[in-house]
Amino acid sequence: MDNLFSLAYQCLSESRLDEKLVLSELAASNILSGSTEVSPIDNDIKIVKAGRPDKPTLIDPRDLPRRNMQNDEGRAAMIHSIAHIEFNAINLAWDLIYRFQDMPDDFYFDWTRVAAEETKHFQMLQSQLHTLGYEYGDFTAHNGLWDIADQTSHDVLLRLAVVPRILEARGLDVTPDLISRFRQINDESTTSMLELILEEEIGHVKTGTKWYRYQCEKLKLDPEEKFKQIAEQFLPSNNTKKINYEARLMAGFSQSELDYLAVN
To answer: What is the dihedral of CA 129, 133, 137, 140, to 10 degrees?
Structure first.
């Protein structure tokens, strides 16, 4: 019987794109069918960087060019930027599983479902890029999301607060505007994809909230106060004040947390 953590590490460390997607799908299927054992393994392997293909070339976020979505190249560049987020999200889900091996079994099943959906999201966007004549890697990207993962690699509570509840939750705020922009240029296929992604990302952030609060309870911490303390350190300087209250409430945010985010 395969070991869940071994499968997670295989998915995380694979750098070849097509192989990574296949591994991610197969691992998720095996884990969710109950055909793996959940027993800790030696995870002394130091993960400096998760496996990723040679392209896209990573640059400073401030150097990313602005694109005009009125033409195919600009539209493809925007889809590429979303696909890059989803690619990182695949790595983040498997890293969370592999790195923290002392959580309840349900934790791993929950995040495996997230990994499976992130893989599906990437494949949908990759297909849309192909329709426009582009590949993942044809545009530059940045590594900000994974840089934050490195900074939170030592503490599961910190990782759960920062990645799903601060960084990925921003997607709940900005995706409705993206949907509107693609609808304005009559790109209904991308619009439909983004609507599905938004719906499922609410569930991913909700999963983050669930396990963040579990860990706070375990450590006897006030989850709202702890979140505010963490947000003071990790909330991006360019954080949008436009908050998707409905989506964030569905994802488990409290009104107190939303009031804090609205003014910070």
So the answer is: -90
